[in-house]
Amino acid sequence: MCNSGDIKRKNIVFEICLVLVFCTIHLLIVPDFGDDIKFVKIMERYDYNIFQVLYHRYNTWSSRIFIEFFDFIIPCLPVYIWKVSDIIICLLLWKMSAIYIEDKYISGLCLLAYPFFHMGSAGWQVTTIVYLWTFVVWLSVISSINSYKKSFIWVIFGTALATNLEILAVIHILALGMWFFYLIYLQDGRLVFESCKSIKNELSNNIILKKIMVSLVVTLLNLLNALVCPGNSLRKIKGIEKNFPDFLDTSFIEKLRICIASTVEHFTSLPDIIFIIISVLAAFLCYQRMKGFRKYIGFIPCVICIGLTVYFLVTRVIGQHTTSYMRPDVNAVAGSTEYILQCVMMAIGIIYLVTMLWTLAYCCDGIKECYFIIGVYCTGLLGRFVLLFSPTMIASGTRVYFYFYMAMIVCIGQLISKIKSRKIKSCFIVFLLAGVAVNVVTIAVKGH
Predict the structure, then answer these.
(1) Cβ partners under 8 Å of residue 168, min gap 6
(2) Cα-Cα-Cα-Cα dihedral sign, residues 160, 169, 405, 119
(3) What one-character DSSP code corresponds to residue 146?
(4) How confident is the model at residue 200 (pLDDT cuts 50, 70, 90)?
(5) Quick check: 341 and 261 in contact, CB under 8 A?
(6) Least confident stretch, 57-66, 139-148, 192-201, 365-374
(7) How is residue 314 annotated by DSSP?
(8) What are the Cα distances from residue 83, in Å, to 22, 25, 87, 270?
(9) 402, 127 contact by CB (below 8 A)
(10) Fewer CB within 10 Å of terminal CB in the chain, N or C?
(11) CA-to-CA distance for 344 and 306, rounded, in angstroms?
(12) What is the pLDDT of residue 291?
């Protein structure tokens, strides 16, 4: 048995290692391309007048004026300011994940195994601010809503900042909707509100419900702002011209095919330790808990994940010497090889999702846990599918997967706590450590 002193020393050692790995990643990163440089040049053009820049951007490009305030300021400062700030943000993300993942070692390893080079796909500083920093603000808002202390000011301002990003606004509405349903129904296994009067009384007395409603209003105002912003319309037109010329003429089903195909290809065209672990973990628990033929259903998503990963590893990474994600052709002609491949990937993706959700449901203990895990998983995935309504569904995809990764990490943390065997759990930890090593090597190669 470990005494409290040994546990404390292990915690300190782990935290030091965590800081060192994050520091190593940021030392390897050289933010000298893409939007980082572009945003500095725009600031120079406007003589560093941030308010003129934001006014121009709102009218010609984006409604994200709260987020872009930092997007334009930070790249103009010495780069070490961003690096130190981003390391702190990463550590805050780890600390906040402890709310949803009991084992902080697992949560730390999962975060380190996330393919961080995604954040460099359009410029390191700008991308981390838009996706990573706002996500941490969003988690802080969720924590504030769940607190009975009267922190309405941060709920309002934090929500305004985080949901200034349209995709995160949609995720927030989904999360609040699920939370609201839980509070009024699932919490006691029955409908809490039996009449309009009881609803009114509950809203006036329940501080959490009040915060949910206030946060929802702020989010809807942000989405309204996104809809009326003249810059968003112009950006969509430019996005169509550059990324998807046939966007307006392509049916929703066709866009869905492209979106599902790109999602499957993203997680398998390069080996992805997070995607592999959640598939194997769910299959293992399903096999342990179920009887008869149902215990083997959990292996369907596992086989799909590992099979496609091995196939692309052999044919593309080794065969073609490429370490870039596959990106489906958005203009594939019906009947072409690319079109057929996308249809196959769509079918595989649907089979994977259905069997994975079934497996996750049977890995859970009770309806509440099932509601949480399935809800988190689907909300993260839907964050990717919001791009169905954008001509940049492929170009922006790599960065947006961040939300699904965070959802999978939460699910992994919940599921791995159910494993009683220390040897089996150690195997998953070894896989995560391998993912951390691959992540650091990848940053060393692609970090500049």
Answers:
(1) 134, 135, 138, 162, 383, 403
(2) negative
(3) T
(4) low
(5) yes
(6) 192-201
(7) I
(8) 10, 10, 6, 27
(9) no
(10) N
(11) 17
(12) 84
Please name the residue that has the structure tokens 């959802």. 407
Number of other CB atoms surrounding residue 281 within 10 Å? 25
| Residue 159 burial class via C-beta count within 10 angstroms: exposed 0-12, middle 13-18, buried 19 and up | buried
Is residue 88 within 8 Å of residue 415, measured between CB atoms?
no
Q: Which two tokens stand for residue 361?
A: 């449901």
d(CA 424, CA 445): 32
Task: State the Cα angle at 180 between 378 and 189, rounded to 5°.
Answer: 90
Cβ atoms of residues 158 and 141 within 8 Å: yes
Give per-residue burial for 104-123: e unless 16+ CB within 10 Å, then b.
bebbbbbbbbbbbbbbbbbb
Distance between CA atoms of residues 110 and 420, nearest Å: 19
Distance CA 132, CA 82 (A): 13
Rounded CA-CA distance 220/275 in Å is: 32
Residue 145 has pLDDT above 50, yes or no: yes
CA pair distance 245, 380, nearest whole angstrom = 28
Structure confidence by residue, pLDDT tens digits, 11-51: 888 889 999 999 999 999 998 888 999 999 999 999 999 99
Of the pLDDT bands very low, low, confident and very high (cuts 50, 70, 90), residue 195 is very low
